[in-house]
Design a protein that fits this description.
By secondary structure, the chain is an alpha+beta fold. It has a three-stranded antiparallel beta sheet with strand order 1-2-3, with no helix packed on it. Strands 4-5-6 form a three-stranded mixed beta sheet, covered by helices on one side. It starts with a strand and ends with a strand. The chain contains three helices and six strands, in the order βββαββααβ. It is elongated. A hairpin with a 7-residue loop joins strand 4 and strand 5. Helix 1 crosses helix 2.
């Protein structure tokens, strides 16, 4: 079981804002905030932290990059770096779910075959990454990658 408690930080004061603090079951804290709303400042955030949907995207990137590194390491490949850039499109109406997500992986290391990277990405996407598999219910997820000799 996993737990997380999210609390609104602006419950007091004239300019309350839309900031939130998430306290995870593992004892970590994550701050989130909304975008400023010039038409109705009381409904907007102060742009002090990532938006909640940005944290969903960051979590998904972390989940799949974790898988890719672990799969490559288990295959005895000398991975020295892995990053993934996620770009999205969202629905225009509420709920503004992600409709398209593209993940571009950059993997670096010594003599890592592109086929191994492609396989690791596919395994994460199809079997291991809970976050991307959940988001795949509403979004078309595509991937690409590059391998850099390190």
């Amino acid at each position: 079981m996993m737990e997380c408690t999210v609390s609104w930080t602006g419950a007091t004061g004239a300019r309350s804002g839309m900031g939130f603090v998430a306290e995870t079951g593992s004892g970590h804290v994550l701050v989130m905030d909304g975008a400023p709303d010039t038409a109705k400042p009381e409904n907007g955030g102060q742009n002090l932290a990532p938006r909640p949907m940005e944290t969903v995207l960051a979590g998904t990137g972390g989940c799949t990059a974790y898988d890719v590194v672990l799969i490559l390491k288990r295959g005895r490949h000398q991975v020295r770096g892995c990053s993934v850039k996620l770009t999205t499109e969202r629905a225009e109406t509420d709920p503004k779910v992600f409709t398209k997500i593209h993940m571009h992986f950059t993997v670096s290391g010594k003599a890592i075959p592109p086929e191994a990277v492609q396989r690791a990405i596919a395994m994460s996407h199809d079997k291991y990454c809970s976050a991307s598999i959940m988001l795949g219910k509403t979004a078309d997820i595509t991937t690409s990658f590059e391998v850099n000799e390190d």
